[in-house]
Amino acid sequence: MGVRAQQKEKTRRSLVEAAFRQLSAERSFSGLSLREVAREAGLAPTSFYRHFKDMEELGLTLVDEGGLTLRQLMRQARQRIADGGSVIQISVKTFMEFIDNSPDVFRLLLRERSGTSAAFRQAVAREIQHFTAELTDYLEEKQKTSRDYAEAQAQAMVTLVFSAGADALDMNEDERAVLAERMILQLRMIAKGADAYNKAKRL
């Protein structure tokens, strides 16, 4: 990559990070203006258009990056599991760390999942599908079950986790700890139920 291309990528990153910094519990992406994002990034508003067509394109980039960040963390969790430990316990711990460290990234995914923009809803749906597909792959391999069963289990787990994550955003540390234990219990129930169902189907 040449110097010019590197500088362009650096400026693009500064816009993405500036937008993420301005998100909060009180402020959604739809409440951001192009001028505010450019000013936060230390750029003139006209510079914005060299990197993004409009604010929607920037927002879709945030959704993609938010989903990718979460998937990368869960992949790391699975690597930690390979070294020994409970798959569900480590996964929940990793997810709650993500909520704690990047609450506004998760808020973005939740808000845009049911937002007014069809493009944003589709983008979040794609990220959730990627997340579910990776978990399906893992369950299919580890449990030696059919793709359909693994996918059904993965969908149930992802739905539960995203719902609990939404609750966790407005909780304090102690409340989140209680929620994490409840998530572990519920996910284990889903896993045990799936295992029993798979065994029954083989009979």
Number of strands: 0
- Which oligomeric form is depicted? single chain
Averaged pLDDT: 89
Instruction: Tell me what portion of residues adopts beta-strand conformation.
Output: under 5%
Structural class: mainly alpha
Task: Name the poorly predicted regions.
Answer: none
* Helix count from the secondary structure assignment: 9
Radius of gyration, in Å, reads 19 Å
Protein name: HTH-type transcriptional repressor FabR
Pfam family, one: TetR_N
Keywords: DNA-binding, Transcription, Transcription regulation
InterPro entries: DesT_TetR_C, DNA-bd_HTH_TetR-type_CS, Homeodomain-like_sf, HTH_TetR, HTH_transcr_repressor_FabR
TL;DR?
Keywords: DNA-binding, Transcription, Transcription regulation. It comes from Oceanimonas smirnovii. The protein is mainly α and about 200 residues long.
Describe this structure in words.
This protein has 203 residues and is mainly α. Helices cover 80% and strands 0% of the residues. The chain contains nine helices and no strands. The protein is elongated and about 65 Å long. Keywords: DNA-binding, Transcription, Transcription regulation. It comes from Oceanimonas smirnovii.
